[in-house]
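Homework-ish question, so no full write-ups if that breaks the rules, but can someone show me the predicted structure for this set?
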Amino acid sequence: MERTIEFVLNGETKKVTVNDNQTLLEVLREKLDLTGTKKGCNQGECGACTVLLDGKPINSCLTLAVRIEGRSIMTIEGVAGKESLDPVQETFNEKGAIQCGFCTPGMVLTTKALLAENSNPTSAEIKEAISGNICRCSGYIKIIEAIQSLAEEQEVM
Amino acid sequence: MHLPDIVYLSPNKTTEALEVIEDCGNSCSVIAGGTDLMVALKQRLQTPKYLIGLENIPEFKKIEEKDESIRLGPMNTLDEISSSDLIKTKLPALSQAAREVGSPLLRSQATIGGNVCLNTRCRFYNQSQFWRSTREKCYKAGGSYCHVTKQKEKCNAAFVADLVPVLIAYGANIKLAGLAGEKMLSLKEFYTGDSCFPNQILNGDRVILTEIDIPIPKNNIRSVYKKFRFRRSIDFPLVGVAVSLDLDENNRCRDINILLTGVGSAPVEIKKAKKELLGQRWDDELVSSVASLASQEIRPLKTNLVSPRYTREIASLKIKEALQEAGGKNGKNY
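A: Not a homework solution, just the prediction itself:
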């Protein structure tokens, strides 16, 4: 069954016609051309499809699009400003926390959610927070270092 | 893998939801957080015509303390359960068990109600439609063969919910609502012991889980949950152990509940070892011998990728860890 849903996407209200059996991931990638959100395992294990739902990271492959009516979604496309990257993206770049880049949109969004909730996470808390985002290049050390340095920067500020 | 064609309905009231379930009959599935059901749908393990979402029923989100018990709505996410201050202080083992499920991404959607109603799992069943098409249909898929035991006896898929052993150890009751009315029953009674239809809802009763009611344990009772799985953020438990322990002032065991998940068709209560512990003085030797005895009470099967012997060994270690931790902070000998 088709229906029109309204939700906030990256800060802007969006109306889109979706089918009841479409996942949020399919709607983002195929209907809205927001291909920054990746399709990996498609069963909630890898975290490549991470988006923020009302500020919390979720697997968009396990979310029915019809269920996000009235809620707020942030994808990787909504993270950077018009002219510059987000500090999380800048730091991931600087620290070499990117290899092939497939997990990066999910990692960045999970990091943003973590730092919004806990500005000074311990190494264990960082590992726990990104445990649902699998890096197929296994570049975790650099990713954890990048998140740690972001937390330190926030401390200074 | 795409989802099959479905019609999604999201009623605003329990009665409305029950009427919809009655109208749709067997062609509907109820969806809570959906972290397990969505995969099952993609794999065509279930092909309902209608999906009934419970997210718009306000009372299903409650967390409240009333009459010496904590009352939880089924739609609280595991993240909400593990971060609730009330649950952290009054039911620490529940908070801990919720935190041990999957990854943070899953926990922000998965719900306690979904965990209580979780279907059983098996390595021959939880596979894609294509994978399964290469073998004879098993019991759980509607056939009459079990690939685990290679016998035509019964289904042996494993019960793997993390929160349930803890809830049973706490003595939780649940409320089931049907069109005929509501009934309260102990959580233990909710499970059938049949791997094909592991609980009353999956067994075809047209009811909805509307509340989980957990009596607040007295101060001297200590509860813990210990879990083993290979991939922390992905795997269901190979073994999960919940213990609630009451030691008297002389460090003797007044009461104890030991419950396991992952090793049977339903949550498994350890009974013989319990008898050995009751009235005994709590010490290291007792804990070690009882842990090994308790692991002999379970009958793990090869429903996952490890041998039953390995599972039993891990169960013994985890039971020991749980008993030590439960007795440790309370018992005087640790």
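Now go work out the reasoning yourself. Hint: The CA atoms of residues 114 and 129 of chain A lie 7 Å apart.
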